[in-house]
Structures are given as structure tokens and as C-alpha cells.
């Protein structure tokens, strides 16, 4: 067992499961604090992605452990494989590979749901504010969709042992494809799987995130409020605040003079600069997030 095998098939799944558990704990905390926010924002699809990725990594790790145990058991001549063991191994291969394919497909399509939510929040903010059960219903529909179209794996995946490959009875077996099924049928199923669960959602993610990114970079994408807007706002709000606080007449005269205008202008400038910095920082974070999504989607197509 070389170092690359250990890193890819053992260290990476364990590290990924640990990170996903941390993210899941943070999302559950958000759900406990504000259930409506959890249901109507990107937290719910992200939680679905986290659970799906964790199950996929756990299935991959169990596949490695099963393969290592099977190789060690193959050299033990005193424990030949029985029919019951072969049946259990066959069921394990079917369920394990089905879980890996289904959860990875569900995670990819959940990522598309996040892109659609970003698109809706930017171009249809009123509709985004009225979202209630649509993300939950979409995830339920996607889960049924993935389970249905990945059900072919339950018929194709089998446990292949040494006798089927022309080797000795105690040669190590592995999870593979049923050779009794026609090769063209298996290739068609794989092509459908790649197209439906990788190519199509990746193209759609690039489309939606690209539109949002173009809108963010476009000079007409965001409307910058002029400084006079803040001046007018504070000119209106300050006198009302002064009236409600019932200050003295001398203070009212002082604020009604030139000092009032200087105070309004300085507060407007400070507020405008502060909000411009916050808006610029928010736009940079949003653009970097969308760029990462587009980059990963493009890499999935390669």
C-alpha cells in the first residue's frame, strides 16, 4: 500500500467527513436560532450538500476498508467463501456504489439550487423574500430524481470474485459491473449518468452564476446612492430626532444654524464612506464566491 493510496482513499475521506461535520453543526446552530432563515436561504441546500458529501465519503471509505479486508481474507485458506458471504458481499457492493453515485449526484444538483437562489436574490428580490417551502420541496424532488435515475446501479453493480475471473477460489474479489449485461447497455447508462448528473448541472451553474457575475461587474449592475441622498436623509431625520428629545431652545437654535449643516454634511460623508466600504467588501466577497463556483463548474466539464 503506497503513500498516494493512503492519502487519497483514507486521509481525504476522513478529513472531508470531519470538515462536513463541522459545517453541519454550524448550520444546525443557525436552524435553532432562526428556523425561517434556515428554510428560506442557502443554508438548507448547503446542509443537504454537507450530508450528501459526508455519506458519499463514508461510502468511499467503507469501500476501501472492504477491499483491504477482502485482500487479507483471500490469503486465509482456512476460511473459504460461502454462498452466504458472497450474497452479503454482493448486496454490499450494490448498496455502497448506489449510495456513492446518488449522494454525489444530489450534491451536484443541490449546488445548482444554490446558484438559482443567488440568481433569484439578485434579479428577483421580492420573489426571493417570499420564498417559503420551495427550497425544501426542490431538495425532496431532487432526492427522488437522483434515486430513480441511479437505480440502474443496483442491477449493474455486483461482487466479482476470483473464480469469475479465471483465478483461484481464494483470489481477492472486488466490486464491479455485471458482465452478463451487454456492454453497450452499460456504456449508455454511464453516459446518461455523466450527462445528467455532471454536465447538465455544471452548464446551468455556469449560466446562472455567469449572469450574476456579469451583473456584479457591470457598471449598471449596482446602483450607487449619491452623497446627496445621505445628506437629505440626515437633514430630515435630525430635526425630527431633536423635536422628539425636547432639547432646549438654545440647543435648537444652535442646531438650526450653520453648525447643523456642517454636522449633517460630516455625518453624511462619514456614513457614505462607511457604507461604500461595506458595499465594496460585500461585492468582492460575492464576486469571489461566484468565481469559485464558475471555476469548479468548468472543471467538472473537463
Overview of the structural elements:
- There is one protein chain.
- Helices cover 80% and strands 3% of the residues.
- With 302 residues, the chain is mainly alpha-helical.
- It folds into two domains: 3-188, Rhodopsin 7-helix transmembrane proteins (Rhopdopsin 7-helix transmembrane proteins, Up-down Bundle); 222-302, no CATH class.
- It has a two-stranded antiparallel sheet with strand order 1-2.
- InterPro entries: GPCR_Rhodpsn (IPR000276), GPCR_Rhodpsn_7TM (IPR017452), Neuropeptide-GPCR (IPR052665).
- This is G-protein coupled receptors family 1 profile domain-containing protein.
- The chain crosses the membrane at residues 6-25, 46-66, 108-126, 138-161, 196-217.
- Keywords: Membrane, Transmembrane, Transmembrane helix.
Write the layout of secondary structure elements.
Layout: H1 3-33, H2 35-40, H3 43-74, H4 83-123, H5 125-129, H6 134-149, H7 153-156, E1 157-160, E2 174-177, H8 183-217, H9 227-245, H10 249-256, H11 258-301
Antiparallel strand pairs: 1-2
Helix pairs in contact: 1-3, 3-4, 4-6, 4-8, 8-11, 9-11
Task: Sum up the structure in keywords.
single chain; about 300 residues; mainly alpha; Rhopdopsin 7-helix transmembrane proteins; 11 helices
Could you give a quick summary of the protein structure above?
With 302 residues, the protein is an all-alpha fold. Helices cover 80% and strands 3% of the residues.
